[in-house]
Design a protein that fits this description.
Blueprint: H1 2-49, H2 52-74
Length: 75
């Protein structure tokens, strides 16, 4: 019975630790999402006022940034 209790306590402690880690990750993802939304809004405004060539350059740069962000999140 004692071993089962110790195991249960260890499992509970690990779950608490994992919950904190997940909360931190969730907070980070929320901040990243808000920043990305702001960038999208600003980029949209920029593209509305830019010429076709500038639009293409902006799209290419944004795609590169998006790829870098995805690689950063995946790691």
């Amino acid at each position: 019975v004692r071993r089962v209790r110790e195991t249960a306590v260890n499992v509970r402690d690990e779950l608490d630790t994992q919950e904190h880690v997940l909360d931190d990750i969730d907070s980070g993802m929320t901040r990243a999402q808000m920043r990305l939304e702001n960038v999208v809004k600003k980029t949209s405004r920029l593209l509305d006022s830019a010429s076709d060539r500038k639009k293409i350059i902006c799209i290419v740069v944004l795609v590169i940034i998006l790829i870098v962000l995805i690689m950063f999140v995946v790691q």
